[in-house]
Amino acid sequence: MTAANDEHLPAQPTEHLPAQPAEHLPAQPAAHLPAQPAVRSATVQASPEPAISAPAPALALGRAGAAESREPRLRARGLRLGYGEDIVVDGLDLDIPDGAITAVVGPNGCGKSTLLRALGRLLRPRDGEVLLDGQRIDKMPTREVARIIGMLPQSPVAPDGLTVADLVMRGRHPHQNWFRQWSPTDQSIVTEALEWTDMRELAERPVDALSGGQRQRAWISMALAQGTEVLLLDEPTTYLDLSHQIDVLDLVDRLHRERDRTIVMVLHDLNLAARYAHHVVAMKDGRIVAQGTAESVFTVELLADVFGLAALVVPDPATGTPLVVPLPRSS
Questions:
Q1: Residue 217: is its pLDDT beyond 80?
Q2: Any residues with CB less than 8 A from the CB of 103 and at least 6 apart, and which?
Q3: Domains of the chain (ranges plus CATH)?
Q4: 294 touches 322 (CB < 8 A)
């Protein structure tokens, strides 16, 4: 399958999943997970495809510093993005650090989610290009892109009654074709993804019956089963209370550390971005105004310029990362 010519390119499941097209799910009743309590570790040998393997050793990248860098796999060059006649992003260049967590921050309407959609091949640039491993992403076969990049949009919605197991199974769709249908390896990968995210006990529960935090873990399970090396998350903590926000971001951090995934996420909470991201990209009016470590980006001057916020920036007593403390607005 080659790229479509229209503006929106569905490399991954979009915000509303289809109601189980046949090509997404195998004919076998695989939604019911095997009864064995244990999930074997990283690599399943039943197929040349690895399971949710721990790839090469993770990049030793501290929150405030960088170790040996790797060549970026995902890049944007001269991006011009918009909807209809409205241009949202114009002339943007960006390299996504490989093997790291990148947080994109900025005020509402600055183009954060639009940029993420372009990086995920869900929005065709008006001009410029997104490159994956040196190739224009819009020229690559859809399945090939979907095996490398996974994307979770804001507040994704599953079809009514779809179980957690069925949702996670859909992550295996890019690995299916007419000649390779559902296999024991796929089932093992799905089971392991559920175990890894602590969702095994909820596998037969409908997604729409879950709490917000459980629902996000279910979607991350699907992305994990997809086996992509790059994961794009659009505001993964939206509508969650603080405790569940920490749970989700701890899971994302663990996914990076233990599975060596490259992660790009849009966040509104600057303190959570500083705590979890190795690289921060600050946007305003469709352009990047600063990027680097949280220490270099979250300055008093930038907070005033980008967010119109008078604030102090002090070390977080728990982590040592920058902590933004807004000052009272004068009455």
A1: yes
A2: 265, 266, 267, 273, 276, 277, 279, 280, 281
A3: 74-298 (3.40.50.300)
A4: yes
What is the pLDDT at residue 284? Answer: 98
**Three-state SS for 313?**
strand
Tokens of 83: 């909807």
Q: Is 305 exposed, middle or buried (0-12, 13-18, 19+ CB in 10 A)?
A: middle
- DSSP bridge partners of 90: 80
Structure tokens at 232: 């794009």
Dihedral of the CA atoms 160, 235, 271, 67 (nearest 10)?
Answer: 120
pLDDT tens column, 231-268: 999 999 988 899 999 999 999 999 999 989 999 999 99
CA atoms within 13 A on the CB side of 274: 22
Tokens 């939604």 belong to residue: 31
End-to-end CA distance of the chain: 59
More confident residue, 273 or 52: 273
pTM of the model: 0.77
Distances from the Cα of 267 to the Cαs of 74, 164, 180, 271, 286, in angstroms? Answer: 19, 25, 38, 10, 16
Tell me how far CA of residue 200 lies from CA of 101, 132, 223, in angstroms. 26, 33, 15
Sign of torsion over alpha carbons 175, 117, 202, 255: positive
